């Protein structure tokens, strides 16, 4: 563990009765970074996050904040957007923000926060009447109410429609621009690619791989993936060595797309439904685990 880390997981483990939820996880987050914990449902992301937040005690390992064990001051310096936060009934957005602000000694400028999270139009609305996107924006504002150095976001865009998700990403960009360090969990690979400087892919409580999304993809894949429906490949023709058969498609990993297309035609493949994709974190997860993230 190096001294320049804001927060670090050092050999974290969590054993629940009959379930090893987190199994020896180590990583560090530098100041100003957006670090993503990625993995399917049940991978151990929330449990890891809760140990880092000081909410769950680890069964093994330790959490270090600025190189030291968590102390009372830690709570003042962090913000948390939980997966499910219950808001007080019969409260408006403004009242809700004020109530959470009162819990801390440190305060963000509430008007600035309202602007940042685009809450101006809904300040007097009852929190039970918010759309999914509005609710998540309020929960983010609540997480930022004490002007934290580090904010934890646990699957903040789960359940949002694609447009609301994109809006939320733009909001996270602005939080980053203010210099706030972000630790986010998600099972959307696209989200992680879009937002995170560094990610750790978690499955069955362990980190499978960690690094910059673009570097990880470059290390594991050539330039492009060609995808053909299985029926487009002649049944009597063996697959080339750089191809993989998936459920209903064939994937061919290539560096030079034009050359590869010529070779496919020589094999007698039909190119009419061909797709050329840039490899993604989704592809990386499939390659590492043999199963798709949403399976
Ligand atoms: N309090 C608990 N008691 C027993 N088992 C638990 C408890 N909390 C979590 N688990 C189990 O630990 C494993 C990891 O759960 P966790 O919620 O950390 O995963 P996750 O990656 O955050 O999943 P999701 O994306 O669904 O939130 C799962 O098998 C879960 O059922």
UniProtKB/TrEMBL annotation:
Please report a single Pfam family linked to this protein: ABC_tran
Which PROSITE patterns does the record match to this protein?
Answer: ABC_TRANSPORTER_1 (PS00211), ABC_TRANSPORTER_2 (PS50893)
Enumerate the spans annotated as ABC transporter domain.
7-229
Its signal peptide is none
Note whether Nucleotide-binding occurs among the keywords. yes
From which source organism is this entry? Lamprobacter modestohalophilus
Q: Name one GO molecular function term.
A: ATP hydrolysis activity
How is this protein named in the record? ABC transporter ATP-binding protein
Q: Which CDD domains match?
A: ABC_subfamily_A (cd03263)
Tell me its family.
Belongs to the ABC transporter superfamily.
> Keyword annotations for this protein?
ATP-binding, Nodulation, Nucleotide-binding, Transport
């Amino acid at each position: 563990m190096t001294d320049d880390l804001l927060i670090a997981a050092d050999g974290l483990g969590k054993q629940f009765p009959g379930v090893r939820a987190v199994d020896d996880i180590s990583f560090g987050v530098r100041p100003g970074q957006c670090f993503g914990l990625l993995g399917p449902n049940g991978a151990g992301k929330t449990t890891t996050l809760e140990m880092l937040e000081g909410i769950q005690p680890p069964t093994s390992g330790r959490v270090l904040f600025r190189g030291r064990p968590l102390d009372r001051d830690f709570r003042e310096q962090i913000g948390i957007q939980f997966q499910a936060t219950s808001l007080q009934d019969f409260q408006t957005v403004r009242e809700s923000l004020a109530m959470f602000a009162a819990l801390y000694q440190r305060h963000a400028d509430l008007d600035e926060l309202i602007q940042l999270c685009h809450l101006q139009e809904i300040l007097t609305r009852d929190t039970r009447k918010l759309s999914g996107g509005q609710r998540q924006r309020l929960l983010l504002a609540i997480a930022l109410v004490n002007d934290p150095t580090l904010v934890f976001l646990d699957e903040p865009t789960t359940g949002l429609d694609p447009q609301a998700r994109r809006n939320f990403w733009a909001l996270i960009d602005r939080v980053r621009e203010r210099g706030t360090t972000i630790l986010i969990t998600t099972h959307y690979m696209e989200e992680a690619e879009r937002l995170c400087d560094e990610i750790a892919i978690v499955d069955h409580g362990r980190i499978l791989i960690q690094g910059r999304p673009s570097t990880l993809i470059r290390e594991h894949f050539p330039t492009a993936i060609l995808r053909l429906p299985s029926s487009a490949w002649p049944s009597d023709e063996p697959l080339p060595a750089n191809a993989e058969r998936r459920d209903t498609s064939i994937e061919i990993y290539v560096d030079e797309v034009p050359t590869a297309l010529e070779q496919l035609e020589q094999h007698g493949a039909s190119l009419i439904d061909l797709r050329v994709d840039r490899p993604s974190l989704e592809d990386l997860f499939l390659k590492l685990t043999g199963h798709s993230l949403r399976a």
